[in-house]
Amino acid sequence: MIYQSSHPDVEIPDLPLHTYVMQQFAARGDRPALTDGPTGRTLTYGALAHAIDRCAAGLAARGFQPGDVLAIYSPNLPEYAIAFFGTTRAGGIVTTLNPLYTAGEAAHQLQDAHATILLTAAPFLDKAQEAAAAAGIDDVMVFGEAEGATPFSALLATDAPAPDVDINPGEDLAVLPYSSGTTGLPKGVMLTHRNLVANISQCVPVEGMAEGEVTVGILPFYHIYGMTIVLSMALFRGAKVVTMPRFEMEDFCALVEEHGIESAYLVPPIILGLTKHPAVETYDLSSLDYITSGAAPLGNDVARACADRIGAVVKQGYGMTEASPVTHLMPRDAEHMPPDTVGPAVPNTEFRIVAVGSYDDLGPHERGEVWVRGPQVMKGYYHNPEATASTIDEDGWLHTGDVGTVDEHGYVRIVDRVKELIKYKGFQVAPAELEAVLQAHSDIADAAVIPSPDEEAGEVPKAFVVRAAHAPDLTADAVMVFVAGQVAPHKKVRRVTFVDAIPKSASGKILRRELVKAERSEDDQP
């Protein structure tokens, strides 16, 4: 069956992204828009509007044409917003790169996206120059100053007029982030101006962010979650965004206390840290009212423990880069708010729960692949019609590759990824469900679960566990007994390996494939 959003549809303005987001910038004048957490350097809304205009003018004067691609290879800084919206204001396309990418990884994306300008931060200039050289890019710019690159400030110093660009919001691309999608290597996700404007419009009435609210910009702006929700929606709503170039728990807590941060958009590893890190007790976090988790499933026990410790509402949202990204979001004011659900669909959005490997719709509480349809769904993968056709069907349904259920309220719970389910004697076991159980253990700092080959069962759940600092003697038997007491027999963890850390992506997703690769390599040893 097709499930509709429980929210009324919203009107989606037919505007370019920057025009939509910046509507009230000039009127907000000297109010702070972005503050750099480490230094306190602040951009007001008036200054931001002027700088975006100057950035567009500088790019045009430099020969940057509508449809050209500018790449940003930088951590979160206030100036990121200038470059991002300045590029779209000039009619260009932004492709964003993880600053932790190697030069080779960065070069691949630069080449694939056909970028003509690379903008980076001084600490990453050496890698950026190597990547630019490999990709044939001559124009390298840098936030601040560094030898061998044009300062970004020089771009803003032009007195040339801002370009008059004709943008078709429904067709012209605004951003080109990269995602692996449901399978394969990272692919360019073509998101139009309308995709992003739609998703902001869909999220605003559900999230209810207040004018002047103070939020934190720790989600990487290169990732679609930070790009849409913090860099775009929060500025559209007139929030003050306190940026963090990298996450450290004590730094985060200090900024919450110093700035009176009221809302935080986080990922599960940070929320897990907030439940267990001793530094949390030494700071006043009472201003923090709302924590929204995304990018990976958040366990019920961890969510409750964080809410109890911080005294904040902890809720979830769901989406993917291919959907700009939000398809489901728990409202701040929901009367019924189970912490393990991502909530109902956002306005103008439909979804289905479909049996894995078939096209049969499933009923409430049955596990299947989540399919979504709405105006936030991407135009397609860049220069990759085959991958597009395998992800978006002829009826416009985006096949997410995620397994979920829906309840009688229309709330969705994300269980795991289709391709990462463990097949134990024919039963499907979701690693994320077991990880949530393990992470709730007071002696476990973190955990991940993978399928481990087994001659009798086919696959068995294997846990990689990080012991808490106070529990160096935690045993594998104790871990397995703990899990066995809380799950059905076919879900029991049957192998345990203790590790120092769990590999994760910048967006908080557990990189199970790295653990699988490491385990297979060990098995291959003589």
Plain-language structure description:
- With 526 residues, this protein is α/β, with parallel strands linked by helices.
- Among the domains are: 44-167, Rossmann fold (3-Layer(aba) Sandwich), CATH 3.40.50; 421-523, GMP Synthetase, Chain A, domain 3 (2-Layer Sandwich), CATH 3.30.300.
- 31% of the residues lie in helices and 25% in strands.
- The chain has 16 helices and 27 strands.
- The strands form six sheets. An eight-stranded mixed β-sheet has the order 3-2-13-12-14-15-16-17, sandwiched between helices.
- Strand 14, helix 11 (268-276) and strand 15 (290-293) form a beta-alpha-beta unit.
- The longest helix has 17 residues, at 45-61.
- The radius of gyration is 23 Å and the shape is globular.
- The N and C termini lie far apart (52 Å).
- The mean pLDDT is 93.
Please tag this protein with its features.
single chain; Rossmann fold; alpha/beta; five-stranded antiparallel sheet; 16 helices; GMP Synthetase, Chain A, domain 3; 526 residues; 31% helix; eight-stranded mixed sheet
How many E-type strands?
A: 27
Main sheet overview: 8 strands, mixed
- Assembly of the depicted chains: single chain
CATH class of the domain at 44-167: Alpha Beta
What is the terminal separation in angstroms? 52 Å
CATH architecture of the domain at 44-167: 3-Layer(aba) Sandwich
Question: What is the residue-averaged pLDDT?
Answer: 93
Low-confidence stretches: none
Structural class: alpha/beta
| Radius of gyration, CA atoms, in whole angstroms | 23 Å
Strand order, largest beta sheet: 3-2-13-12-14-15-16-17
